[in-house]
């Protein structure tokens, strides 16, 4: 054993010794007023600027939200919207005109928003077959897709409730009589396109049943290119959600009027859901949501206030730390 | 043997050994009947008759499992725990379609958790197996054939084998003694392991076999022993031996029990009668009661509460779910959520059968909300406890170097219970004292000799703390040490240059001194053993104090070296010639010691032919027996004795008288007559005769023997008293001894009111003479009741004046006091007293008192003892502590923690106990907090998912939460956290009250932590859902789906619970940092790795982190904001508490932090904050003394 070896050995032993004797070097923080005040102030000074920056980002986003589910039902049908929407013989087209209030820089994202739609219902979430989406109808174990699994003893590709209830309203945008080009590529996550939806899997026997749910798919386009479906199949977390429809890759100026021609196919009337069309720019942070910024500012400023209050309390009452009158065993009368 | 064989003494003739032949007559008639059917064919274990009886072998098994039973039995044990059973049920259900998550993800954690526990069980049992193997493979000499003895393993012994056991070996089975190395076939047996008594017991073989004391004698030996069946009674044995066609009765006198040890005898021969599990010791050993700590019991209740919450949540969810499901369909037509296809649904979601669907949903909800119950709780606690026990075992401050004995936590179940002890019940001998007596002082002819310092005086001096005293003592010790030739002689601690080295001859009363030590050298029943090589003499005595006297006499120059049946020989210093001369004293009569006489005498004739009666005894009986002319030094002697008694010493008065020939003759006649009488009152007769002659004595002086307290006992008791722990002493000793020790360890002091309960009243004594049992019982009960009531009245009357009381009760009275109708009153009285001493109590009574305290007060009791007589008490108490100092292992084997010295109790309780209590209770609270935080976000999410039991998180996120992302920091806390360091724990003993009062694990604290969990979950869920509502999640305009929402929220939960941990611990070692930050880092790492697994496995978590979460600033911002916002309320709460309402440990943290620890006055101020003034211990004693002086 060389000298260094021995030393190392001894070192290890001391560390182990300290461990067994529970005397490992440790820091023992005590919540002294100084620390408390520092921490609160620090939180405040971090959160207020962060909140302001976040708020700015959110405010920089221009967003147009237009609810259209009621307006797009012609007056006579408004009593029974469900039968209107289920009646294929009635044309469903509808026009909206949106006024751009502020300059919107491209890309402008187009979303449809659904409310009161439980995409997160367990029956719904489970009703898909990832393997089938990737491998096609060769993959048979699709019992999770029930009841949208087979039709006429033929497997349905893509199976399951989610695909079956695909959103199928369509939108076209016209500005000053010129159609705005809507880019509907790259609206889904890349990993989905590449790894979850097969490039050689084509829709088969889809929406051929007696009960037609939502949109149909072009059987000649592989699933990996059916981005509407891919977006739709990433189920939402909450019953009110937006999904990306496409991008307008031209700037919109303030006071522009955009006319939207849409096909109001999708039935949200049955369960009282709302449909909205959203046009939004995006910031580095994403879309428009003031909550995070406001909450940060709020938490930050309350931290600062707490720090001040705490400091005042601390200075005002110089209670000796040794006062035992409120120790639990002195509070109770001790009888035995 | 190197030292040569010792002389063989016909010892049986010195002690009147009664073999009890007469008294067993009636029992022997039962032999052969049921219950007495055993037949042992000695020396022919192979014969046909022995074969058909098929007695069990000598293999002893103490393991819980065997290879075959391990799996089913330990699984059964595991699933007996209600939480584990629940997880088993959910695990099974997760294979059905009810499960909201995949079965594998639910089963894996369960397997990990159960597997870890089972491995632990297995390892523990394997260790026990190793122990078994060691014991079973010990070797003993067994007779093979033709008089040859060969070594064989214990496990191979069979009934009927002849074995030869040699000195200091354990008996391998229960044997019938045939012969020994002594002519009269006696042998000495140490039964320490059985009953904890250290004195040797004498056993003697039948006379007919006593000649078989050599190997070749067994060539043709044949005997048939018929005896009782195996039973647990250690003190009875009924059998007959058929030897050479004669029947001889066998009694316990011939039975050598397994686990006792052969002492002072070179070898013995014996026949194996009971083997293995038939032996009395093993029949006696009951399965140790499995103890659970109070905290664990409470934890069970918390788990039930959690079940209740889970059921409520499931129930509420099911109602909402049922209603929503039913509304989807109307008259068979789709009404609402068509996208769920309510028209063609399986039962779980079928609107047509909505109530059934709701019930199924309830089950699903139970599966989903199983995350409320921490699956890893049990196993984490077990891991933590094992590590805590390792700390206890490894603690260098509880390691007894002299005996190479560390502390040993034998069960890890009770670590935290050590922090809640309210009452300690302690044995005395071997626990408080070392069971060694030291001759330390004496008063001869009215002069006090002896400069030794007792442990008590030392403790008092230390407390006074005046450096001057220390200096003085040191100097003194120094001088003494240098002059002392034999600094360490066991049993002798007498230091006085006036006496030692023959200087006594120059003292003014040299003749009295001579008589004094001569008396010590003659008046005893000890046996000398001369080592023939060195010529040194050592002594075997009945009691250690007797040995101390003989040794003292030897050291002063009166060396007792030979005893025959009729004489005692001394080497003594002739003061005239100054030479050592051998003098012989003819021993005429021995008037033995007993508890009623409280004295012993011998009558001897010296070489000059003078008859002397030498007497030593307790002062209470001796002073009244002095002659008128023999009271010269009475005043001084009394005064010295009082001093000695207050210093905790045992005192005896020595006196003598000269007898005339006539007197002696008359006495001898009467005495012999009395001894030979066979009437029932033989004892009384003897006493009366002895009483006549032990009169008109001449006082010589008094001795003081220190029943040596173990090192540091008074200090330790003082600390425990300051910590508010009550100490009861339960001892088998006499009342006087017990009181002495009480003084010695400051449980009693001058000025304390003593309430003594005993049955030594004259009426009862007179009743006892009549022998009417009923009357005695009745009178005794009445008397005890009266004394208890009186005592209670006294205590209540004077307690207002902060008078301290001590209760002293003896065994006989205790028997009545523990009866059902009286025990409540007794307990009440005992609780009112500052110290309680129960003397003369039997092992059973010790256990009963323990049970009374435990169930009567509902507080945690701790019993500490070293002997087998304490086993009952140790098992009965909430915690049993065995002292492993001396050889006896019985107490240690049945204890929960073994320590080598009583003083380690201080550290064990105040440091380890406090820490463990704090750690475990914080740990459990935290466990529930973290699981509520996690589980409740699931529930809140349900409310937004139509209560369909869709988990917010990915399956594997769910199942690994408890195992990977939140468990390690808790374990680290449970192992390492320290509120204050060991030094401060000991400096502020009152800190211990946090455990006794259960401040850290009261319902208030538990519920607060749960509340913390609920609001954390609420903040996390709502802030996350608000922040990620429906706007674009990233720059590329993508919105947040379930997987992003779940991932973000999960990240927030992981951060929040781990940071919460870092806020709530007060001791950060590197390990804590690794555990906390490592858990968080591991979560990110896990996301990456898991995200790269194929989508079929990772499902909706596929590449979520890499692709969506990590590049998005809103993910990080949301995490930061939500986590901080979640923690601020708790931080504020603990800051305010720490600053304005610190708990006791908080105050100590302040002291440490602000460097007040050197400010003595300040520290004292904090320390003095007591529940009530400490009434026992040396501090209290000092305080009492100083107020008294004022």
Structure, explained:
The complex is a heterodimer of chains A (336) and B (1190). Chain A has 336 residues and is α+β, with helices and mostly antiparallel strands. Chain A has helices spanning 3-20, 33-59, 81-86, 122-126, 130-135, 161-164, 190-196, 227-233, 290-316, 328-331, and strands at 26-27, 63-67, 93-99, 108-114, 150-151, 154-155, 170-175, 178-179, 182-183, 241-248, 257-263, 275-280. In chain A, the strands form three sheets. A five-stranded antiparallel beta sheet of chain A has the order 2-12-4-10-9. In chain A, strands 3-11-7-8 form a four-stranded antiparallel beta sheet, with no helix packed on it. In chain A, helix 2 (33-59) runs antiparallel to helix 9. The longest helix of chain A has 27 residues, at 33-59. Chain B is α+β, with helices and mostly antiparallel strands. Chain B folds into six domains: 38-58 and 157-284, Calcium-transporting ATPase, cytoplasmic transduction domain A (Distorted Sandwich); 67-137, no CATH class; 294-373; 408-432 and 710-899, Rossmann fold (3-Layer(aba) Sandwich); 435-465 and 488-659 and 697-707, 3-Layer(aba) Sandwich (Calcium-transporting ATPase, cytoplasmic domain N); 928-984 and 1002-1169, no CATH class. Helices cover 47% and strands 17% of the residues of chain B. Chain B has 42 helices and 36 strands. In chain B, strands 16-35-34-33-17-29-32-31-30 form a nine-stranded mixed beta sheet, with helices on both faces. Chain B has a nine-stranded antiparallel beta sheet with strand order 19-18-28-27-26-25-24-23-22, sandwiched between helices. A six-stranded antiparallel beta sheet of chain B has the order 3-2-4-13-5-11, with no helix packed on it. In chain B, a hairpin with a 6-residue loop joins strand 23 (567-573) and strand 24 (580-591). In chain B, helix 11 (377-394) packs parallel to helix 31 and helix 34 packs antiparallel against helix 35. The longest helix of chain B is centred in the last third of the chain and has 40 residues, at 904-943. The radius of gyration of chain B is 38 Å and the shape is elongated. The two termini of chain B are 65 Å apart. Mean pLDDT of chain B is 82; it is low at 1-25 and 466-486. Strand 1 (26-27) of chain A pairs antiparallel with strand 36 of chain B. Chain A: Belongs to the CDC50/LEM3 family. Chain A: Its main location: membrane. Chain A: Pfam families: CDC50. Chain A: It is found in: Membrane.
């Amino acid at each position: 054993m060389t000298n260094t070896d021995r030393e190392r050995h001894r070192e290890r032993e001391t560390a182990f010794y300290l461990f067994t004797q529970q005397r490992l070097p440790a820091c023992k923080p005590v919540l002294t007023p100084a620390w408390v005040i520092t921490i609160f102030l620090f939180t405040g000074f971090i959160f207020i600027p962060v909140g302001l920056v976040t708020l700015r980002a959110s405010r920089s986003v221009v967003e147009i939200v237009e609810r259209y589910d009621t307006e797009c039902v012609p007056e006579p049908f408004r009593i029974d919207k469900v039968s209107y929407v289920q009646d294929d013989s009635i044309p469903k087209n509808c026009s909206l005109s949106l006024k751009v209030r502020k300059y919107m820089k491209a890309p402008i994202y187009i979303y449809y928003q659904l409310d009161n739609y439980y995409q997160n219902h367990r029956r719904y979430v489970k009703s898909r077959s990832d393997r089938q989406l990737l491998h096609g109808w060769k993959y048979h174990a699709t019992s999770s897709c029930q009841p949208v699994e087979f039709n006429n003893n033929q497997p349905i590709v893509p199976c399951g409730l989610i695909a079956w209830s695909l959103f199928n309203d369509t939108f076209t945008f016209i500005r000053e009589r010129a159609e705005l080009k809507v880019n509907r590529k790259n609206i889904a996550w890349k990993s989905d396109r590449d790894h979850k939806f097969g490039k050689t899997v084509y829709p088969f026997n889809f929406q051929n049943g007696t009960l037609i749910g939502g949109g149909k798919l072009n059987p000649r386009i592989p699933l990996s290119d059916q981005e509407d479906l891919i977006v739709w199949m990433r189920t939402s977390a909450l019953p009110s959600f937006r999904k990306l429809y496409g991008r307008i890759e031209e700037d919109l100026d303030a006071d522009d009027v955009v006319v939207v021609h849409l096909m109001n196919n999708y039935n949200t009337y049955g369960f009282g859901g709302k449909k909205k069309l959203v046009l939004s720019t995006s910031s580095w942070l994403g879309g428009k949501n003031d909550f995070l910024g406001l909450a940060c500012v709020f938490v930050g400023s309350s931290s600062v206030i707490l720090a001040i209050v705490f400091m005042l309390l601390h200075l005002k009452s110089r209670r000796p730390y040794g006062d035992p009158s409120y120790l639990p065993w002195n509070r109770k009368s001790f009888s035995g | 043997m190197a030292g040569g064989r010792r002389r063989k003494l016909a010892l049986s003739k010195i002690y009147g050994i009664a073999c009890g032949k007469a008294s067993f007559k009636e029992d022997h008639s039962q032999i052969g009947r049921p219950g007495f059917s055993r037949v042992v064919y000695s020396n022919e274990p192979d014969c046909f008759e022995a074969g058909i009886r098929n007695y069990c072998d000598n293999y002893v098994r103490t393991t819980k499992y065997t290879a075959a039973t391990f799996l089913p039995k330990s699984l059964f044990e595991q699933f007996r725990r209600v939480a584990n059973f629940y997880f088993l049920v959910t695990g099974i259900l997760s294979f059905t379609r009810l499960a909201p998550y995949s079965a594998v993800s639910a089963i894996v954690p369960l397997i990990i958790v159960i597997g870890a526990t089972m491995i632990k069980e297995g390892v523990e049992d394997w260790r026990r197996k190793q122990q078994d193997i060691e014991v079973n493979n010990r070797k003993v000499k067994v007779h093979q054939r033709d008089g040859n003895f060969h070594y064989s393993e214990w496990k191979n012994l069979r009934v009927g084998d002849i074995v030869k056991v040699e000195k200091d070996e354990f008996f391998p089975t229960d044997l019938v003694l045939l012969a020994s190395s002594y002519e009269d076939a006696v042998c000495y047996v140490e039964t320490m392991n059985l009953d904890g008594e250290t004195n040797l017991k004498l056993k003697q073989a039948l006379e007919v076999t006593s000649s078989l004391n050599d190997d070749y004698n067994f060539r043709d030996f044949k005997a048939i022993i018929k005896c009782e069946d195996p039973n647990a009674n250690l003190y009875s044995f009924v059998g007959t031996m058929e030897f050479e066609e004669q029947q001889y009765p066998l009694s316990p006198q011939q039975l050598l029990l397994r686990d006792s040890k052969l002492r002072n005898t070179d070898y013995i021969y014996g026949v194996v009668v009971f083997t293995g599990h038939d032996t009395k010791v093993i029949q006696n050993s009951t399965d140790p009661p499995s103890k659970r700590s109070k905290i664990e019991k409470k934890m069970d209740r918390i788990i039930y509460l959690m079940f209740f919450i889970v059921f409520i949540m499931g129930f509420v969810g099911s109602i909402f779910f049922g209603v929503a499901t039913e509304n989807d369909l109307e008259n068979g037509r789709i009404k609402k959520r068509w996208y769920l296809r309510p028209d063609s649904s399986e039962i779980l979601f079928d609107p047509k059968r909505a109530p059934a669907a709701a019930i199924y949903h309830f089950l699903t909800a139970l599966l989903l909300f199983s995350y409320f119950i921490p699956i890893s709780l049990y196993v984490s606690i077990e891991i933590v406890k094992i590590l805590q026990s390792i700390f206890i075992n490894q603690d260098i401050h509880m390691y007894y170097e002299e005996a190479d004995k560390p502390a040993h936590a034998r069960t890890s179940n009770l670590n935290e219970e050590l922090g809640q002890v309210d009452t300690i019940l302690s044995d005395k001998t071997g626990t408080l004292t070392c069971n060694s007596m030291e001759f330390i002082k004496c008063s001869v002819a009215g002069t006090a000799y002896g400069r030794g310092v007792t442990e008590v005086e030392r403790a008092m001096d230390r407390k006074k703390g005046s450096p001057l005293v220390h200096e003085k003592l040191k100097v003194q010790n120094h001088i003494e040490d240098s002059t002392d030739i034999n600094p360490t002689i066991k049993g002798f601690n007498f230091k006085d240059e006036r006496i030692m080295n023959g200087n006594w001859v120059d003292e003014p009363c040299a003749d009295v001194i001579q008589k004094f030590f001569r008396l010590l050298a003659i008046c005893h029943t000890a046996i000398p053993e001369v080592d023939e090589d060195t010529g040194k003499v050592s002594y075997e005595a009945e009691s250690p104090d007797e040995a101390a006297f003989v040794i003292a006499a030897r050291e002063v120059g009166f060396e007792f070296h030979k005893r025959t049946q009729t004489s005692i020989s001394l080497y003594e210093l002739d003061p005239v010639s100054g030479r050592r001369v051998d003098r012989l004293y003819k021993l005429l009569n021995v008037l033995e010691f007993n508890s009623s006489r409280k004295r012993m005498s011998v009558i001897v004739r010296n070489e000059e032919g003078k008859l002397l009666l030498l007497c030593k005894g307790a002062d209470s009986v001796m002073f009244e027996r002095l002659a008128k002319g023999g009271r010269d030094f009475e005043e001084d002697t009394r005064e010295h004795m009082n001093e000695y008694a207050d210093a905790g010493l045992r005192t005896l008065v020595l006196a003598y008288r000269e007898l005339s020939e006539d007197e002696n003759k008359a006495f001898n006649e009467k005495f012999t007559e009395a001894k030979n009488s066979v009437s029932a009152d033989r004892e009384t007769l003897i006493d009366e005769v002895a009483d006549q002659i032990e009169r008109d004595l001449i006082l010589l002086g008094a001795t003081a023997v220190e029943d040596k307290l173990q090192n540091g006992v008074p200090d330790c008791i003082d600390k425990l008293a300051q910590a508010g722990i009550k100490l009861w002493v339960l001892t088998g000793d006499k009342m006087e001894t017990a009181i002495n020790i009480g003084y010695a360890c400051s449980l009693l002091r001058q000025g304390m009111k003593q309430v003594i309960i005993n049955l030594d009243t004259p009426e009862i004594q007179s009743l006892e003479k009549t022998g009417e049992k009923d009357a005695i019982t009745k009178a005794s009960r009445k008397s005890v009741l009266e004394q208890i009531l009186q005592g209670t009245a006294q205590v209540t009357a004077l307690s207002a004046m902060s008078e301290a009381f001590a209760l002293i009760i003896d065994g006989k009275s205790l028997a009545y006091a523990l009866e059902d109708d009286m025990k409540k009153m007794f307990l009440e009285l005992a609780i009112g007293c500052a110290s309680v001493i129960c003397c003369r109590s039997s092992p059973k009574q010790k256990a009963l008192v323990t049970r009374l305290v435990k169930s009567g007060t509902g507080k945690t009791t701790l019993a500490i003892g070293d002997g087998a007589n304490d086993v009952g008490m140790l098992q009965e108490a909430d915690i049993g502590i065995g002292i492993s100092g001396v050889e006896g292992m019985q107490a240690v084997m049945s204890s929960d923690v073994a320590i080598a010295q009583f003083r380690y109790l201080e550290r064990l309780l105040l440091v380890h106990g406090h820490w463990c209590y704090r750690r475990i209770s914080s740990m459990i609270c935290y466990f529930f907090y973290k699981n509520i935080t996690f589980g409740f976000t699931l529930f809140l999410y349900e409310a937004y998912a139509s209560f369909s039991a869709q988990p917010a998180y990915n399956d594997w996120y769910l199942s690994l939460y408890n195992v990977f992302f939140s468990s390690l920091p808790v374990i680290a806390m449970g192992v390492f956290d320290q509120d204050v360091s060991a030094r401060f724990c000991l400096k502020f003993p009152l800190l211990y009250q946090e455990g006794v009062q259960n401040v850290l694990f009261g319902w208030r604290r538990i519920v607060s932590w749960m509340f913390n969990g609920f609001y954390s979950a609420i903040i996390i869920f709502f802030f996350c859902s608000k922040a990620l509502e429906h706007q674009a999640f990233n720059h590329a305009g993508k919105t947040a789906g379930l997987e992003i929402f779940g991932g973000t929220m999960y990240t927030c939960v992981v951060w929040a619970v781990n940071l919460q941990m870092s806020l709530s611990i007060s001791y950060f070692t590197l390990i804590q940092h690794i555990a906390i930050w490592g858990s968080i880092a591991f979560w990110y790492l896990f996301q990456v790795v898991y995200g790269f697994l194929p989508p079929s496995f990772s499902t909706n978590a596929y590449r979520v982190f890499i692709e969506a979460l990590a590049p998005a600033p809103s993910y990080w911002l949301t995490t930061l904001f939500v986590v901080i916002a979640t923690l601020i309320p708790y931080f504020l709460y603990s800051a305010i508490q720490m600053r304005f309402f610190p708990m006791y440990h908080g105050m100590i943290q302040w002291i440490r932090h602000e460097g007040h620890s050197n400010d003595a006055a300040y520290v004292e101020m904090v320390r003095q904050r007591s529940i009530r003034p400490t009434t026992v211990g040396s501090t209290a004693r000092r305080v009492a003394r100083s107020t008294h002086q004022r």
